From TrEMBL:
CDD domains the UniProt entry points to: GT_MraY
UniProt entry keywords in alphabetical sequence: Cell cycle, Cell division, Cell membrane, Cell shape, Cell wall biogenesis/degradation, Magnesium, Membrane, Metal-binding, Peptidoglycan synthesis, Transferase, Transmembrane, Transmembrane helix
Gene name, Swiss-Prot/TrEMBL: mraY
The name this protein goes by in its record: Phospho-N-acetylmuramoyl-pentapeptide-transferase
InterPro entries (alphabetical): Glycosyl_transferase_4, PNAcMuramoyl-5peptid_Trfase, PNAcMuramoyl-5peptid_Trfase_CS
Amino acid sequence: MRGVFVAAGVALAVSILLTPYLIRFFARQGFGQEIRAEGPASHKSKRGTPTMGGVAILLSIWLGYGVAHLLTADPISASAMLVLFLTTALGVVGFVDDFIKIRRHRNLGLNKTSKLVGQLLTAVIFGILALRFANARNLTPASDKLSFVREIAVLSFGAVGFVLFSYLVVSAWSNAVNLTDGLDGLAAGTSAMVLATYVIIGFWQFRNSCAITSAAGCYEVRDPLDVAVVAAAAMGGCIGFLWWNAAPARIFMGDTGSLALGGLVAGLSMVTHTELLLVVTGGVFVVEALSVAMQIVVFRTTRRRLFRMAPFHHHFELAGWAETTVIIRFWLLGAICAALGLGIFYSDWLTASAGL
């Protein structure tokens, strides 16, 4: 348990203290954000704001996790390392995307094919390795069975199916967080809430692990406590970054941060066996992604726009809402979704532990 607090504290401190240096460095290098021409007029003033701040989040996650293990001497787990690999690899894809945008002075970086290949390779490697590294109880970091709060025994993918499923999950969540990252602090704040739920979920699964107790309702998860340490480090990193990213933002996380965080929550859902629960917990990300999909479908079929602009948060800006109003209300929705997800998780445990 001490490792969870250490990871969160160290990541928080690193993110808060490192980000100002990145702001100055990126500003000197001219690494400024390009703005969508069709976006809200109020966003034009943000052009040139330093981007690629996701570097601070990634470094804080690694340092928070590393220091926690140095101080506690707890073993490093396969589950945690796979999630960190997934997060970092997608962060690299996002970094390349951001760098191309900056060098070409446009709001388009990697083309769709290049980004797809990057996500595909990362997800396939994760999916293959996640079904390996069985421990003494023959538990691997992930399972080839679909999970809500626990594994749904009748829904098994098999090894090949799981790799394909991994790509679907990783691609969906990395793109969903990326689409949400359009207002100051929106993605960072919402991600921190989702990650906080995974700190609790991981710790609860550890306290009620079948490796410790054979009581009804125990969890068959390989490395829940170490996964909670990763989630705590990421939560601390997001909160620390939010100090500088909150409106008016002095730095943006860019695709470096948003793709990494999307991969992170996707990885956490798979190693905690809660893939479908994440749809509830990360409800804001789901709505943002759905708004884009619905906008495209409706426009292509009727030639009319369902929303003033997608993703969904821009619809409210164009309706006259102040940016901070949209952000705070979406944060409130994020908190409600996170609380609802935790409520479902705990309700399942109560039901299972009572043998119902």
